[in-house]
Design brief:
Blueprint lengths: L13 E6 L7 H14 L4 E6 L1 H4 L9 H15 L7 E4 L5 H10 L4 H5 L2 H7 L8 H15 L5 E3 L5 H17 L10 E3 L34 H9 L19 H14 L3 H8 L4 H27 L2 H30 L5
Parallel strand pairs: 1-2, 2-3, 4-5
Helix pairs in contact: 3-12, 4-7, 4-13, 7-8, 9-12, 10-11, 10-12
The chain binds tryptophanyl-5'AMP (TYM).
Length: 344
């Protein structure tokens, strides 16, 4: 006889995602995540976090951390996340994130974490010298999501494996504590041409905040001249753009630029190639740079305006933390009870 499948999760549909306050945000963060944060607002209850607990895995930066945290919150709002509807808050302000992460540390298995490619990439050959926090990063990410019983998580493709781990942790908690359907198995929302934006110089590396060369990425705060210069210097090849998607095979840098154009204009890759197929980069690159500048300039202007008034941002973040805590606290109380803690 086979066991009956566990009951499906029956709670509300909820979106959760987060970004680290490390360096400035770039086009990959925008197209892989932030643009989706905005689009999901009408459809779900949305909770967007600035994950400062995750940021300290990259080393201490106490003088800058609070300012960088506000900057990410400003980017959320400038891009179109509406704090009157969506919850915008800072991870460390809701202590339950750390508390649930500890419970999940006792659920997740070493072998699961040892398979995480992001840790391997960051640690390189020096795993034994990395902090335990960096190794544990994806467990805290699972706690972030499940503390709100979030069902949908908009992220870039590089987060796919971390989301699979969150699902494994949710499932094992539900099994170990005989709580079928207690935690949902969160669904990653990854699809679309913006899910994996590559480095402008090397189409095999992802666009990243940590690349030493600023020419490899477009920052959300770059002005029109800087964008034009970076796009013009982006690696391409001497051939014209292909007429169809198949023609992008083996041309990683070209595929990336076309993907950026498509994601930024919210059109399909096929549609973009219908317009630019057969044309050279002398036509396509200026069109791409102009599109980027036109879309990013209002965001950068609004970010500057918001950053000039930290008190107003702090008010939004404290109210966001109160709203987040109001959802998290009863869920954490239930976890404490399931686990059997004294006083729960
Ligand atoms: P972070 O700050 O490194 O990245 C923030 C988001 O940007 C996406 N991203 C990209 N998308 C497309 N192309 C790229 N080149 C690119 N680079 C970055 C990331 O996939 C991410 O969605 N671990 C998370 C932060 C986090 C989180 C969470 C996310 C902590 N807790 C809970 C969701 C739910 C991260 O990668 O942050």
């Amino acid at each position: 006889m086979t066991d009956a499948p566990p009951p499906p999760y029956a709670g509300p549909q909820r979106v959760f995602s987060g970004m680290q306050p490390t360096n400035g945000l770039h086009l990959g963060n925008y197209l892989g995540a932030l643009q989706k944060f905005v689009a999901l607002q009408g459809k779900y209850e949305c909770i967007y976090c600035v994950v400062d607990l995750h940021a300290i895995t990259a080393g201490p930066d106490p003088k800058e951390l609070a300012a960088k945290t506000r900057e990410v919150a400003a980017a959320y709002i400038a891009a179109g996340v509406d704090p009157a509807h969506s919850i915008i808050f800072v991870q460390s302000a809701v202590r339950e994130h750390s508390e649930l992460a500890w419970v999940f540390n006792c659920i997740a298995r070493m072998g699961w974490l040892e398979r995480m490619t992001q840790f391997k990439d960051k640690a390189g050959k020096h795993a034994e010298r990395m902090s335990v926090g960096l190794f544990d990063y994806p467990v805290l990410q699972a706690a972030d999501i499940l503390l709100y019983k979030a069902t949908h998580v908009p992220v870039g493709e590089d987060q796919k494996q971390h989301l699979e781990l969150s699902r494994d942790i949710a499932q094992k908690f539900n099994n170990d504590y005989e709580a079928p359907g207690f935690f949902p198995l969160p669904e990653p929302l990854i699809q679309g041409p913006g899910a994996r934006i590559m480095n402008l110089r090397e189409g095999t590396k992802k666009m990243s905040k940590s690349d030493p060369s600023d020419m490899t990425r477009i920052n959300l705060t770059d002005d029109a001249d800087t964008i034009m210069n970076k796009v013009k210097k982006a690696t391409t090849d001497p051939l014209p753009l292909p007429e169809t998607k198949e023609g992008l095979a083996g041309r990683a840098e070209v595929e990336n630029l076309v993907g950026i154009y498509a994601a930024m204009s919210e059109r399909s890759v096929d549609d973009v190639l219908l317009e630019f197929g057969g044309k050279g980069f002398g036509v396509f690159k200026p069109a791409l740079a102009e599109l980027l500048a036109a879309k990013l300039a209002p965001i950068a202007t609004e970010m500057r305006r918001l950053n000039a008034d930290p008190a107003a941002l702090d008010a939004i973040l404290s109210s966001g933390a109160d709203r987040a805590r109001a959802i998290a606290a009863p869920i954490m109380a239930e976890v404490r009870e399931r686990v059997g803690f004294w006083g729960a």
